[in-house]
């Protein structure tokens, strides 16, 4: 393993590689959900390591809501090309026709139609029986109880009261026709682990994580970047250039920026260690209502 | 109320990151022992609770809290809506925190009786357990239950957290009584270290800061103990075990075996054996994305290449030639049942052990264990959360170690074939050897007819000699030569007999006699099949060799004595057996602690010091020609 890694990062890396290989060995048709964020970048890097000198024996899938930052899409296409891995991009065309957007429909409906339903469409369309996700247990309360191999019914539903017990590193991968399993290889990583690993392994990440002058508007205390003309300005509102960066990445109208001058990985790690707010604080979709993540997950959200 | 100042400075966390190790532990206790509060306290004191989470916590405390106006730290860790409303934790939740010295993964496991399976789940990956005891109540039945499950899952380090000490006026006497009572109870459970700490998770006493209210206590705080405790199970020192996960074949020029090292170390040049087939080879490379490694050890995920084209697939276990795992299709185990649907002996399940999945049945339910009293009770079936000692039979033989020696190669799950549910979790105790029934069939085509079809004369070629004398090596060459001559052959040796037909036998004199008797009977059957059967057995006693001779017709038994001095055998020691025998690890070892009777009337004696194996094999062929068993070319 890489010599620059601390003991605990080596352990986390080896555990994740073990999980990724189990999936490739036991499932008929796996896919790796690729959301372009730092966690996905780490997961993809681990997959490259897991099968070396072979390439990962599964494609990447990006569920595109059409509202991702432009930098993310550029990064996505370059990464797939550079690594020589198949990339499937799925857009819920029905949602597009219905004019669903975070602005017109609100974050709830937009997420439901363009992310959750779109993901289910893609999984059904290609008949994937296992899908990797980059979620971590330290992100959010309901994630803490999620299994590494999380069973989903043929309707993609998650039943938190009826999860398979998961002992040692013996993962039960058995599914019937139509059922599937979501697999979270970096379950045991924390945000700090992810950044320290990105740094130690020199993993490319989307530039939006680094501070730069960007056009933002302030709404309900959150800084929203105006990534393109689709974000309508409210009366009297003018985007101003501010030095900002993002801790997590999603649909740009739903992702709050933070004011920061962190332009390097060192800066980011230092800033994170001093931070007093959690990573998902900038994610507007989580705070809609109590237990909102659990509700989304039951319905098939990653 | 939250009082203690955050413990870990963030700079310290970052600075020492490269030296940091990882400790996984579980917390066990009931709803009322303050377990969730303790975890909330650990997270808060190590600065893992952020402002926005604290704000959400304040909001939640008003709605669900049980601590009056104070923030309810327990709500921080009680994740799911359903359990929040019931005020209980219903599943295993994992938490993460770090100090300057270590990073920690906490499995938060429930205390209710019906959730034994969740505790076992949390304990399966933990190196330490914190048992919460309410100072007002002392050691309860559930404390005992949790201790038993920790012991069952192989946890060696226990922390008895005597919580709510503030409610008994920080009494030294109460603490000492609880500590004493627990030590007495736990004595038979085999824990290596038990540390008791008086604390108040709610107020923070002795969690991360030493309490001024208990001047009589001079042990470590909980955090200090967790940072310092040594839980290295020394897996690296154990024998090399490598369950193959995935055969790595990017192109025709590369064939590697990917997997995680379960124990021990491996280096290029090491001799390895495929446990189930007995095929051997040599490690050529340890391949990783970051370049080849000179050595890899327990816990590493690597890809290994071998010198030979050996047939290896997922589920095989690579091990040192001299220190192999057991290979058997029957073993005894402790089993925890995790499904509503009861276990019935005789029903077929899928068993997954390391990377191998095979059909399996529970052949005997020896007794179940009452987790409260540890009493052994008779049982016909097993229900949810019950624990039993069982015998299991698998469809094919699998490689394993006792769970006490290796969690990765000694643990298994049983999967319901109908629902795919994870129905049971087991820990192997040891392999079993049992006799099989023999059915005699009347045969209408005789030996001569069968031999005629093969255009050969059947015979038994019986190789005898010390372990390591070279029997198998010479026999292998002889068989190749016979094969080239178009002869139908069969080779019987310790490997294919001891693992199957004679797996119920040990190495006492009585068992050796019985083993040779069986081999003789099998050899006779092969002779009747018209086959040239080559037998390689130490067969130390003249009486048994004569017995086999008597089973076949005159002239059909050719005794070949492979004559190698015991000193030379000890020097060669290809399987490392002499070393272990001399160390007293293998009783009744021929040449060391059990006698070898030199053959008096062998048809052929091969002094291995005089000639090469190839030349000695030629002598065997020459004898067969001389005896009219083979035609001269």
UniProtKB/TrEMBL annotation, chain A:
Gene3D superfamilies: HUPs. GO terms for molecular function: sulfate adenylyltransferase (ATP) activity. Keywords: ATP-binding, Nucleotide-binding, Nucleotidyltransferase, Transferase. Its EC number is 2.7.7.4. Residues 29-256 form the Phosphoadenosine phosphosulphate reductase domain. It comes from the Bacteria. It catalyses: sulfate + ATP + H(+) = adenosine 5'-phosphosulfate + diphosphate. Pathway: Sulfur metabolism; hydrogen sulfide biosynthesis; sulfite from sulfate: step 1/3. Residues 280-302 are annotated as: Disordered. InterPro entries: PAPS_reduct_dom (IPR002500), Rossmann-like_a/b/a_fold (IPR014729), SO4_adenylTrfase_ssu (IPR011784), Sulfate_adenylyltrnsfr_sub2 (IPR050128). The keyword Nucleotide-binding applies. The keyword Membrane does not apply. NCBIfam families: CysD (TIGR02039), PRK05253.1 (NF003587), PRK12563.1 (NF009214). With CysN forms the ATP sulfurylase (ATPS) that catalyzes the adenylation of sulfate producing adenosine 5'-phosphosulfate (APS) and diphosphate, the first enzymatic step in sulfur assimilation pathway. APS synthesis involves the formation of a high-energy phosphoric-sulfuric acid anhydride bond driven by GTP hydrolysis by CysN coupled to ATP hydrolysis by CysD. Belongs to the PAPS reductase family. CysD subfamily. Heterodimer composed of CysD, the smaller subunit, and CysN. This is Sulfate adenylyltransferase subunit 2. It comes from Chelatococcus sambhunathii.
UniProtKB/TrEMBL annotation, chain B:
The keyword Phosphoprotein applies. GTP binds at residues 29-36, 108-112, 163-166. It catalyses: adenosine 5'-phosphosulfate + ATP = 3'-phosphoadenylyl sulfate + ADP + H(+); sulfate + ATP + H(+) = adenosine 5'-phosphosulfate + diphosphate. ATP binds at residues 465-472. The active site is at residue 539. Keywords: ATP-binding, GTP-binding, Kinase, Multifunctional enzyme, Nucleotide-binding, Nucleotidyltransferase, Phosphoprotein, Transferase. Belongs to the APS kinase family. Heterodimer composed of CysD, the smaller subunit, and CysN. With CysD forms the ATP sulfurylase (ATPS) that catalyzes the adenylation of sulfate producing adenosine 5'-phosphosulfate (APS) and diphosphate, the first enzymatic step in sulfur assimilation pathway. APS synthesis involves the formation of a high-energy phosphoric-sulfuric acid anhydride bond driven by GTP hydrolysis by CysN coupled to ATP hydrolysis by CysD. PANTHER family: TRANSLATION FACTOR (PTHR23115). This is Multifunctional fusion protein. It comes from Chelatococcus sambhunathii. The gene is cysN.
